[in-house]
Amino acid sequence: MGAGIRKKAAALLCAAILFALPLNAAAAGGSLVPVGRAVGITLEIDGALVCGFRAVETADGERRPAEESGMKVGDVITEIDGRRVSSAEDLTSVLDDCAGDEMTVTVARRGAVHELKLRPAVGVSGSLELGVLIKDRIAGVGTVTYYDPGTGTYGALGHSVSDPETGYILPLRGGTVASVRITAVRHGEGGKPGELAGSFSTEGIGSVERNTEFGVFGTADGDAFGGETLPTAEPGEIKEGRAELIATVAGSEPERYEIKITRIFGRGAGRDMLVEVTDERLIALTGGIVRGMSGCPVIQNGKLVGAVTHVLVNEPTKGYAVSIERMLEAAA
Fold it and tell me: What's the pLDDT score for residue 18?
């Protein structure tokens, strides 16, 4: 679960994170390197994400053009009068070229496209303004699940990077992954999820090329994620009982910790398994599963079976995991 990337509305469940080109990934039954290394993930949004509104001071008083048009927090502005908006810089450039008349603003909202009629305000500086607070990138700490040395591709998080307000999967323009050193841990407690904090390296070690319901995927420098390969579990091979997860919760090196798979649900919204942390070392370090651990690989009987995705907020030693089969399907 990456710090600052995603918040779930449900009180009892929290994503364990903080996030297209075709990628070639091994099918279930192949071999991959289970990684478990914490990384800093920066995702560049394809458009301008509306994260709030503000009043525009004009010569005639205050105006709120975006709110008046029906725009909502979580909308992604993608076009203005047919001109593409891929970033905050594009939005500024398009507004600088507008005449100030009514315009058509195209937004993506929960997977649907809406066209809004909007008359921009002329601010006291003389520039056209919409009265929106926007961002075009989002960043946080997450964990790499696997690396495929045959293709140079990786998978991480086990769930999407989504808008904090709406839960909508953010459209991707690009992104990077960078090494991170974990510098602090806020312990998980009943009713309050914990969190990993870390310092990002300024040098990227890979790209983000796909943001899906079951993870983010891209290509990476093999030296960053290298290690021994393990076979991936075939459907039906995952059993209730003892397992391990690989996590980085101190410094920059991953370690293995004991867990149990306590229940197997099957294919359901990324909650394929219920897992419980049993390793007293990890409980002492984090209190259980915390934000930043989304993507921690789960190993059972010498095979990579899945990745941790969410923590039960009221029981931080317990959480959900997605199967490796689902991650590889999303990467294909």
Answer: 42
Please indicate, yes or no, whether residues 215 and 282 belong to a single structural domain of this protein: yes
Pair (210, 254) in one structural domain: yes
**Burial (CB count <10 Å: 0-12, 13-18, 19+), residue 184:** exposed
Ranges of the chain whose pLDDT falls below 50: 1-25
Can you give the pTM of this predicted structure? 0.84
Judge if 125 and 141 occupy the same domain.
no
The catalytic residues are 159, 279, 294
Amino acid 203: pLDDT: 81
277 & 320 share domain: yes
Q: Residue 268: what pLDDT?
A: 61
Domain residue limits at 79: 55-130
Residues with Cβ within 8 Å of residue 127, at least 6 apart in sequence: 95, 96
In a domain, 50, yes or no: no
How far apart, in Å, are the Cα atoms of 142 and each of 12, 120, 123, 206, 246? Answer: 20, 39, 40, 14, 13
**Rounded distance between C-alpha atoms, residue 186 and residue 196, angstroms:** 6
Residues 182 and 266 in one domain: yes
Structural domain tally of the chain?
2
| Tens digits of residue pLDDT in 113-163 | 999 999 999 988 888 999 999 988 888 899 999 999 999 999 999 999 888
Residue 327 — φ and ψ, nearest 5°?
Answer: -65, -45
